[in-house]
Write a structure and sequence with these properties.
17 helices; 13 strands; disordered N terminus; 13% strand; Rossmann fold; 41% helix; alpha/beta; six-stranded parallel beta sheet; 451 residues; seven-stranded parallel beta sheet
Amino acid sequence: MALVPRVIKKKAKSLGPVFMEGKFLRRFGVNIRRFFIWLDKRIGTGIRNLVMPHWKVVDNQIMFLPYQHGVACNPKYISDELIRRMPDIEIYWSVNQAAFASMDAMDIYSKLTNGTIDKHDPKLAELEAWIAEHVHFVRPNSYEYFYAAGTSKILVTNSILGDKFYGFPVKKDQYVVETWHGSLGIKRFDLDHYNTNMSWPHAALRTGRQTTHCISNSTFEDAVFRETFWQTTPILRLGHARNDIFFPNYQGMAAFLRGEFLEQYDLEPDTHFALYAPTFRDDHNFKVFDLNAKQTVAALEERFGGTWKLLVRFHDNDRKTGAARRNTIKGENVINVTSYPDMQELLAFTDVAITDYSSWIYDFVLTRKPGFIFAMDIADYDNERGFYFRLEDTPFPVATDTDELAANIAKFDLGKYQADVESFLADKGCMDDGHASERIADQFEKWCGLR
């Protein structure tokens, strides 16, 4: 009979066994490193609270502190409008890889001219010169970043102000403007739907205390601000600058962007685009994104006619964690646009929208073009995150698998859908009209003493 060795399990009452086994640094080294990182951050916070209040605010200086430190969303379109005006201001952007960042003068020029490009136009050269002199990029959480934040008259964000562990004091003569990235979005983000030990809710509470004004596009968003972290913050219902691109005054711009995309991928001019862009999951579960691309494209071609391509874009959180590499949605009619820099530009020339719970479709609804919900985990997501309203109360047909999505596409009624869109927008009190960036820039110029 084989002998089974006896394993003695005795809980050590001292560090002696750990030293004896040669595992002290492996066992406690990580925690020691974490402690010093935490201590560094606490020291930095203390120094910022001590020093930054003494820096003088520059009246004609504006800083943009966007979500994920990229040039996009409302901050980008507000900045573009300011640059087009070329006023007496200095603009600072907090961006990753600031040393390599730049502002595309051609992009801003094409918006200025509604997509009509003349490379010999003196205005283009003037824009390039103004950007080179007046637009500056700083690395997040660097000294230059904090100095710009401490001296700018207006601080603009579309999420929390500063990073989770890198808050900073705000002076009474500064304006802190929240231009939230969700607007009519369905996902809840109040404290009841977060683990309160997480750093994000604490940073959000800090942002709520520091914000001087929220910019809203609807009565619905007003209510969301009031229910979350901005219970008493003044709300300016000026609309969302990022949504201006969906209106007739930007139609030429949308056509220009579409043409650039067709050329980049060598596609025929009559190609149609459906965008599938789901939101992220905290557990990075990619099984809930199991869309059958071939079946979906076939359904689109059968219902709407023509040649279709499925654009697939995963959330920035999935891209940064590497989870997007597990993408299984592939095929000859699929184009991965996860790295495409500007979501709003994609939406401007997208013909059909497909998502689960992502807020971008509630921007896209302003185009009145078809949208569909494909969500495989509705009950689980509702339980974990929660919804502000039911998916069934949106204009979008809801599917929980690809077969149902294909059926919804096949029986899609454009007339009913567009009537439902008007009812939805009226119910939410949406006031976007294509001129939000102008109204916001007017307000900023007043605060900077330029009007």
